[in-house]
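README, section 4: Worked example with a bound small molecule

Sections 1 through 3 covered apo chains. Here we extend the same pipeline to holo records, where the ligand is supplied as SMILES alongside the sequence. The molecule in this example is adenosine-5'-diphosphate. Nothing else about the input changes; the structure line simply encodes the ligand pose together with the chain.
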Amino acid sequence: MVGIVGAGQLARMTIEAASALGIPVVLLAEEPTSAGAQITSRVLLGAPTDAGQLWALAARCDVMTFDHEHIDLEMLTTFEEAGVAVRPGVEAMRMGVDKAHMRETLRAAGLPVAQYAVLDPTDPRPLATQVQDFASVYGWPLVLKASRDGYDGKGVWPVANPAAAASVCARAEAAGIPLMVEIHVPIDFELSALVVRRASETRAWPVVETTQVNGVCRELVMPGQVTPAMATSAQALAVQIADAIGLVGVMAVELFATGDTVLVNELALRPHNSGHWTIEGSVTSQFENHVRAVLDLPLGSTEAAFPHVATVNVFGPADGSDPSGRLAGALAVEGAHVHLYGKEPRAGRKLGHVTVCGADQSDVRNRAWRAARALGTQVPTSVSGQAAVR
Ligand SMILES: Nc1ncnc2c1ncn2[C@@H]1O[C@H](COP(=O)(O)OP(=O)(O)O)[C@@H](O)[C@H]1O
Ligand SMILES: [Mg+2]
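The generated complex, written as structure tokens:
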């Protein structure tokens, strides 16, 4: 039995994959209506930091794994010390929970990261002054980031000048949010390298190009603009990190392509939105390989099953309507694999994704966007090659 802390769409798709292997999954869900909890009766209700319910989860499963990073590492350490199989381990998970720790570890290992500084709330100099010190070396604009609990761009604040930085610092200080500052990278495009590891083997999927709008992933394309040389170096970085931290399970490494180099932006130590294409587009999906890895079963091939794959995220339309009411339009698009997560529809909320696989890049993108549009998702004006997806 696999226990998952959290019950969102990642848990839901993990259950779908585990189910095919006859592997049961039990969830710790905050709500009985969570995307994952809807498709299984094996659900414990509680917060991811509810020690009592975490112990109950541990008692029911052979290994404990995670759907998100909103966890209490210190609490989980006591579980690990008591002999609970926590996968990935707590020290590895720290890389996904705390961006400042992740940056320090990557920089110490000599890996390429953007120039940054961790702001120190105990320093007598105000946070805004610490940002100004950083700016006096690297200039403006900069990016301020919450080092914990951010996702989908929540917790990422581009700032163009000292006044904007001071206002973000004041708000973060009032809310007790730990901050880091980094240069605003002139990004050519973003990419993601997905790996899976258990003690005896590490495998990397082909690298994808990802498109974020306001910090939210809208689209991924395999291989997109990722050149073979870039893919090789991104995969090597991801494998190096996975081996160095003793990863068990799936990890996504988000990277920025800038000029001739790639920089590591952040890590997610779990199945990730940038890996949704693997469900239909590769021999073994990220969800199946995550289950295999945490149970120490042989990993499946991470080869692509098609030359080109596009995945487009589905968001709640502005009128708040439910995309599931428009399923027929999306299913009418040839080859569209539609995934709706069963989440309560809200304008702008990520509710699903569509994947199309094939032999031609603009064709798969075009069809994936067509299906997403049929579900009520708008094509953002900044999505590149928009003309191709009309
Ligand atoms: N230093 C930076 N320079 C330019 N853009 C950035 C920088 N950091 C983040 N971004 C943009 O914001 C997005 C979200 O930032 P990220 O650190 O990945 O936070 P999250 O945890 O919300 O995914 C990135 O995918 C990228 O588009
Ligand atoms: Mg990110």
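What to look for in the output: The first strand starts at residue 2 and ends at 5. Residues 254, 266 surround magnesium ion (ligand 2) (CB under 6 Å).

Section 5 describes how to batch many such records.
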